[in-house]
Amino acid sequence: MAEENLKTKGTEVEEESGFWNRLNIPLPERSTGLFRYIRDFFTCLEFLTRIRMTKREVWFPDDFARSVPYFPLVGGIMGALMWGAARVGALAGFSGNVLGVFLVLAELFFIGTLMYDGFMDTADGVFSGRTRERKLEIMQDSHVGANAVIGAIILILAKVTLLGSFPTAVLGPLLVAMYVVTRTLMVVYILLFPNARPGGLGEMFKTGGSPVYLPLALVLAAGILFYLGPVWCRLTVFSCVPCIALAFYLKWNLGGLTGDTFGFLTECGTVIVLFLAYYLFR
């Protein structure tokens, strides 16, 4: 992808609406030293959530690649926000599926629909039963097909049912672990799997990246999970196996991964973590 195209695509993050978007914290165009890491963190935060705290006029192709090590940290922030939402729901007297619906709505408020979009596009393409090239074309089509609709319904029903199945004491740390695991796995998908097609989101996150980003992300994720407790580390190991197996299936099916498949894998990973936790804590 050309540098200008990357810059144009990157500006979508800044222009998208979100809460806290009125703070408009100014950041230098090309930060150095400590400010560089602050800039990279906010790039990650504003891409993965609906939180908009900075205002930038210029984007560079490697801005997104340099944000990759912060995925686990932003996952932890997501989990903390959702833990707070779970507490609010419990105080309001919500339980069961009502609490599950409340948490799905809270997720849409804090995190948005970026991963849902990738999930639906991938469902349309992969389950179309067409050739590899045609599947990739379908995934780029802006129209929504039956596979996407049915997949989204099943996904939301699974989330509602599973999220409403845990006691509040377990649900809080589970949400943190779930978002840390799924966002850390995104780093694995981005850095270790080939792109199914040139350009796009996958290449944008690899342009200007570094081999040290993966170990940095893994160390950061391990630190958060060890702080939560050993049971969450065990859940992480069990969850990673089917998630990575699913990534290899998509690689075989499509010839690699795309930005849409990152969303598909992340949403499927969410359900996998919740499902395994259900059996672990029942």
From TrEMBL:
Membrane topology of the entry: Multi-pass membrane protein
Main subcellular location of this protein, as a coarse class: membrane
Keyword Transmembrane helix: yes
Keywords on record: Cell membrane, Cobalamin biosynthesis, Magnesium, Membrane, Transferase, Transmembrane, Transmembrane helix
Compartments, record wording: Cell membrane
Any single GO BP term: cobalamin biosynthetic process
Record bears the keyword 4Fe-4S: no
Necessary cofactors: Mg(2+)
Pathway: Cofactor biosynthesis; adenosylcobalamin biosynthesis; adenosylcobalamin from cob(II)yrinate a,c-diamide: step 7/7
Reaction it catalyzes: alpha-ribazole + adenosylcob(III)inamide-GDP = adenosylcob(III)alamin + GMP + H(+); alpha-ribazole 5'-phosphate + adenosylcob(III)inamide-GDP = adenosylcob(III)alamin 5'-phosphate + GMP + H(+)
Family: Belongs to the CobS family.
The protein's name: Adenosylcobinamide-GDP ribazoletransferase
Gene: cobS
